[in-house]
Known about the structure:
Layout: H1 3-15, H2 20-32
Amino acid sequence: MNMQETARLILGLRAAGWSEKEINDFLLFIESGEEQYKPKKVEKPSEHKE
């Protein structure tokens, strides 16, 4: 991934509402593969099954 693609990824994640820590941890996960940085699924209120 080049720097232009990385910048677009970061800007897209910001636009999606990700915090700076979530973005940093995700980039660390991509580079290192360490599970401690892997994103956790966040369930949205509309995803609840009734």
